[in-house]
User: Fold this.
Amino acid sequence: MPSLTPSQWPRLARIAGEVHATLSPIRIACDVTNPLLGLQGAAAVYAPQKGLRAEDYARLDQETARVAALLCAHCDQPESLHDTPGSGAAGGIAFGLMCATRARLLPGFGLVSAWLRLEARLAAADVVITGEGRFDESSLCGKGPGAVAQRALELGKPVHVFAGQVAPMPSRSGLYLHGITPSGTNYQRYPTQYVAPEVISRWRLCMHLDCARLSDRNPDFRLKKCARRPAAEAPHRPETRERSRAT
Assistant:
């Protein structure tokens, strides 16, 4: 069966098939509270981050609603399921799993925070550095980087966020946003690893800050400076080149 992309959804008339009865219970660690549809839904909030044009939003949201209704009918689930906070996560994948497999959503940040002992690490830090592909208002609605930033600010820690793109946002004391993709970048000219020179300068400045307890093995470690070596002095790593050629 060919891949059924959103542009082909109008061809979808019904949904068939079933989920195996022995499937283990599914729990989804979810960072966001967005529903599937509407002004705070997947198409409105997350699709533009992936390149959706403004003029295509209404059509995508309408088709998402239609396909969601087909899935609800097939799985004997109420259509109100798409209003569940978090059902719009990952472009609506959360909704699909909730509908077809009765999956349940769990607070993602709380789960990961407990695993990583993040509360203790934030309390011990002098500076907090985090990042995301695009940092905007949705980042502060439960996403991991935004949750890290908010908790660090509550603890009185300065936070530096590095993102591929930073949307205009109200300034907050202690929160410093750094966009690492220069405006007007020609992506065909630069590789994905390209970082603007001015961003490198800002990053070097941040790394000069006294970052406490960067290593569990050496709690007293302090990163005092970021030395810059000329490109000619970069270590020779032939194994990396051979690995790249092999792939």
